[in-house]
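debug: dumping io for the single-chain case to check the tokenizer round-trip. Nothing else runs in this session.
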Amino acid sequence: MNPHNDPSRQVERDLMVDTQIVAEGITDPAVIAAMRRVPRHRFIPDYASEDAYGDFPLSIGHRQTISQPFIVAYMTQALELSPGEKVLEIGTGSGYQAAILVELGVHVFSIEIVEPLAQYARDNLSKLGYDHVRVRAGDGYQGWAEERPFDAIILTAAPDHIPTPLLEQLAVGGRVILPVGGYAQNLVLIRRTEEGYQRIELLPVKFVPMTGNAEESPPIN
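debug: decoded output
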């Protein structure tokens, strides 16, 4: 999708995809191609660059991380995205997940609660030509109401309950994927139907906690 991708370290990127993504069961050709194209090392601080293509999350400062490559691919594939769809990301981090989403031809709106990271993500995305991602600094718990509805929502930090405002901003037929829990977390996929919401438990994960309103707002049953 993007003509401005950095071709450096392609051998490492291909090895990452072959051994951590394809070998572990990711089958969506568009997701696999996106993971091959996006230069992961450009989304992490220089001090961690050597480990950019390792099979683990990495610190990006401010007590935040960039997710393990497999988890990025798994969550992206689970959303079953189509070009032209509108996606809300909660937890921009360094911008890597947003870049993967753009490679799938979707429109990305991303919210990052740590203001320096929001600017870091903007800079990273801009340098690589990902000009169509809208990044906003703020608390993602309330979503991005003025841009609703969204076809998909992805959270890259873990609340202890599913934020109701995000469910309300899903289009009918929309999907949201997020880690839920405290010490023990599960990755959850929710689909909005005409009748309500369908919830599917996917796999155990470990993400940084969602901060801000997520820590104060009680779940609504």
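debug: round-trip ok. The two ends are 41 Å apart (CA to CA).
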